[in-house]
Design brief:
The chain is 34% helix and 24% strand. The termini are close together. Strands 1, 2, 3, 4, 5, 6 and 7 form a seven-stranded mixed β-sheet that branches.
Length: 216
């Protein structure tokens, strides 16, 4: 049984992707401000948010382990005997015309997003950060997948929105759900569009010697 991987996310899709591969995952969602900075590039944004989620959770774990203020100043990583060592965070956005589309705030915004995406290509960008609490080291990367949507009429968009799977999805569609029929084609990682580029995440784990959490 692999050691637990801490997932700094509330996303059930990321959790499911990791568990399907065989990871033992402990979900610890991070509540942070996910607003983009002025003129911030999409790849910079997703990497910054992913890293912020991770560091927020790392701090929470360390605060739990080290209640003595002197220890908090001196100890940057975890004790070697702690069962929790690796923390993974991610953030996914849809980008069209260099504009970042996150999760829609309401039905109207979801309809606007799909209207903008229909019949053309956009790209999905996921930034992820892997943090080694034992060594206080991190790896960070952004992965892009190009997606082309089918043409849709306003009636078809409304019909899809009535399904109810749009509100917690970047770009207002779920490629792993009923929204799969909206996607004409894609180039790149499919799991990246779902919320986590599993191939690239595992490659980073190999590079950072995270062999204790790998399921193989």
């Amino acid at each position: 049984m692999p050691a637990q991987l801490v997932l700094a996310s509330a996303s059930p899709r990321r959790l499911e992707l990791l568990e399907k591969v065989g990871f033992a995952v402990k979900a610890m969602p991070a509540v942070i401000d996910e607003s983009p900075h002025l003129d911030e590039m999409p790849d910079t944004f997703v990497k910054r948010i992913a890293r912020s989620k991770v560091l927020t959770v790392v701090d929470r774990i360390q605060q739990t382990l080290y209640t003595d203020p002197d220890q908090l100043r001196l100890q940057r990583g975890l004790r070697r005997d702690t069962p929790l060592r690796w923390v993974l965070g991610a953030d996914t956005v849809v980008v069209v015309d260099n504009d970042i589309l996150g999760k829609p705030a309401d039905h109207v915004e979801a309809a606007e997003m799909l209207t903008r995406l229909q019949g053309r290509e956009h790209y999905v960008l996921t930034g992820f950060c892997l943090y080694d609490m034992q060594k206080s080291k991190e790896g960070i990367q952004a992965v892009q997948t190009n997606v082309r949507m089918k043409a849709m009429s306003p009636k078809e968009i409304e019909k899809y929105l009535s399904v109810g799977e749009s509100m917690d999805k970047a770009g207002a569609y779920a490629i792993q759900g009923i929204g799969s029929y909206l996607v004409d084609s894609l180039v790149g990682s499919y799991t990246n569009v779902v919320g986590l580029p599993v191939c690239q995440v595992v490659e980073m784990m190999d590079e950072m010697n995270a062999h204790d959490i790998l399921p193989y």
